[in-house]
Amino acid sequence: MSSRFTRTVFAAASLLLGACTSQPTRDELAPTVPNVRPASSSSMSACSRSHQRWAGVRRSPLSAEQWIAAEALVLDELTRTATAEPACPLFATLRGRVALELALAERDASSSGRRLETAKSAFEASLAGHSEWVPGWLGLAELHVLVGQPKLAREALDRARAALASLERLEAWTLSSATAEHYADDAGRGSASADVVPALSPQQSMAVVVRWIDEEASWCVGTTDVPEVAAADALVIGRWRRLRARIELQDARIEAAEVDYDPARAVEVLAAYDEALRWDPELSEARIELALWWARAGEPERALGLAEPFLDGRYPLLTFNPALLKLAARAQAELFARGGTLAAFHDAVHYFERLGQLRGDDVEVQIAYARHLVAGAEQLADATIRADARTFVSALDPGLPERAELLARLEAHAESAP
C-alpha cells in the first residue's frame, strides 16, 4: 500500500472513529499494583496458540487478501481470550495491536475505521485498572499517530514514559519470568472461582506484570527470533531497554507525522529514530523506518546498511515483510540507476520478484519494477534484459500513462542500439 493511499484511507477512517478524540483520564484508571489478578493457565495457553498462528502468518508468502484473512483469525482468537479474562491487560493489548495491523492492511476506509475502533477500545480496556501498563499507552500513541492526532499521541506517550519510570523503580524488575509464572500458577490454584484468587503482595503482583510484559514483547517482530537478543540480560538490559526503545520509536513516529507540515524538521525525525536504536539496536521497526527516511533523502547506501541485517534470513518473521522488500528493491534500483553493475541490477530484480509474490497487484510496485527493467535495458547491452523489460511493461494496465512512456523509451533504445 502506498504512503499516499494509506494517508487517504486513514484520513477517511478517522472521521468514522468519532470516539478517538480523547485519552482515558487519571480518574478512570486505577493504580496497577499491588494485587493484580494473574491470568488463568488456560488463557495463557490460548494466547500462546494465537502467537504461533500470528508468527506463522509472518513466515508465509501470503497475498494481501490471504494475509488479512489469516490475521483476522488471530484477532478473533484474541477477542475470545480478552473477553474471558477482562482483568488481564496483556490480552486486550495484543487484541488492539492485531486490530491496528489489520487497519493498516485494509483497503477501504470503512473497514479500516472498524479496525481502528476495535484497537482503540482494546487499548483503553488494557489500561482500565492498570494505569502503569506501558504497552497500552504505546498502542494508543501509535493509533493516534495513524489517524492524524499528534497531540493526543504525545499525551499517550507522556503517560507511557511516566508508567515506565514507575515500573522501573520497583524491585520486581529483578524477578525472573519463571518466578512470575510460579506466582501466577500458585494464585490460579487457589480456587475454581476467579473472584477468590488470593491477593498477591506488591512484589508478587509485579512479577505477574513482568511476565505479561515479556509475553507482549514476544509479539514484536524481529526481537525474539535473534539468539543474541534472547540471550541478553532480559532483567535489566533486554526488558527495560526494549520498552524504552519502543517509547522512543513512537516519539520518532510523532515527529515524522509532524514533518509533513514542516520538512525543515526532518533532522529531528532522524535523531528520534537514532535515539530508539540507541536503546535497542535490534529494534526492527525503527531500523526499517529509519532506512525508509534515508532512502527518501537520496541515501540508498545508508538505507540498505540499516535494512540488510533483516534480509539475510536471521529474522524469520521478516522474511516476507512487504515494506522491507519494497525498501530493498527501490534502494538497489537507485544504486543501479547511479551507474551500478549487472550484479546490482540483478540484486534489485531479486527483491522486486520476491515483492511481486506478495503484492503483485500493487500498481506502485509494478511501475517501480518496470522502470528498473527499462533502465537495465538502456544501460546494459543484454538482449535478455531488453526482452524481459518489453514483456513486463507490455503487461501493465493499458490505462497507466507510465506504460506508454516506458514502451516509448524501449523503442527509442532499440532504434539507437547497434
Write up this protein.
It is built from 19 helices and no strands. The protein has 418 residues and is mainly α. Among the domains are: 139 residues, Serine Threonine Protein Phosphatase 5, Tetratricopeptide repeat, CATH 1.25.40; 96 residues, Serine Threonine Protein Phosphatase 5, Tetratricopeptide repeat. The longest helix is centred in the middle third of the chain and has 26 residues. The radius of gyration is 24 Å and the shape is elongated. 44% of the residues are buried.
Brief summary:
This protein has 418 residues and is an all-alpha fold. The protein has helices at 3-16, 41-58, 64-84, 89-105, 109-127, 134-146, 150-168, 177-188, 202-217, 227-230, 234-259, 266-279, 284-296, 300-307, 322-337, 342-359, 363-379, 383-394, 401-416. Helix 8 (177-188) crosses helix 9 and helix 15 (322-337) runs parallel beside helix 17 (363-379).
Characteristic terms for this protein:
418 residues, Serine Threonine Protein Phosphatase 5, Tetratricopeptide repeat, 70% helix, disordered N terminus
Topology as a string of helices (H) and strands (E): HHHHHHHHHHHHHHHHHHH
What is the third-level CATH name, the topology of the domain at 1-24 and 38-152?
Serine Threonine Protein Phosphatase 5, Tetratricopeptide repeat
Q: Can you identify the CATH class of the domain at 1-24 and 38-152?
A: Mainly Alpha
Mean pLDDT across all amino acids = 82
- CA radius of gyration is 24 Å
Which CATH architecture of the domain at 1-24 and 38-152 is right?
Alpha Horseshoe
Q: Low-confidence spans: pLDDT under 50, at least 5 residues?
A: 1-16, 26-34, 171-197, 223-237
Main sheet summary = none
- Beginning-to-end CA distance, first to last residue: 40 Å
Strand content: under 5%
DSSP summary: helix tally = 19
Structural class comes to mainly alpha
Helix content: over 70%
Q: Based on DSSP secondary structure assignment, what is the total number of beta strands?
A: 0
State the shape.
elongated
